[in-house]
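Suppose a colleague, Dr. K., hands you the sequence of a protein chain of 178 amino acids and asks what its three-dimensional shape might be. Before reaching for any lab equipment, you can write down a predicted structure in token form. Begin with the sequence itself:
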Amino acid sequence: MIEFQPSGFSKGSYLNVGASWLWYESVSGGLRFNVGYRVQGADFIAFDNAEQFRPLIVRMAAQAAEEVLALRAKFPSIDAISRFLNATSNRQLVWMFSAAVAAGLNGEFELSRARFDEMFGYSADNAWEEKLYSQARALVALLDDTDRFREAVRRAIDVRRRQAKLPPIIDCLDALVS
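The predicted structure, expressed as tokens, is then:
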């Protein structure tokens, strides 16, 4: 995702770039950055006038494109995503959920089960966490059936894409996994 983020205090833009795993359903329907966010070295660009702003925002857009290409190189496959997510012991629920899903998609069923179990060690304190736990419980039940597990993840991605008003998924999940 690329976000040219306005300021609440002055006219202009910050630059945020990151990856969003769309395999969990959202209560709000919005997108969130799962990896990445504010681009280092991309300072706020103040808007004084179009003539001043245009070359700066064009440069910022080019930087955004470079960041996207770097993310694509970092995450070319589910295997790469699983290795990245499972290399850290991040205790955020969405991170643990994503690490479990990526491991499951990558055929690392014991690792997936362990990450889901780790997640279940925390309490759900609000609606979005309850929804995430519900989805996690459903996915754990499917871990022994690869096709059904993948199909459940695909359905969750389809739901998130519709919620975010994105076009339907291209059949890229199979390409990433194989």
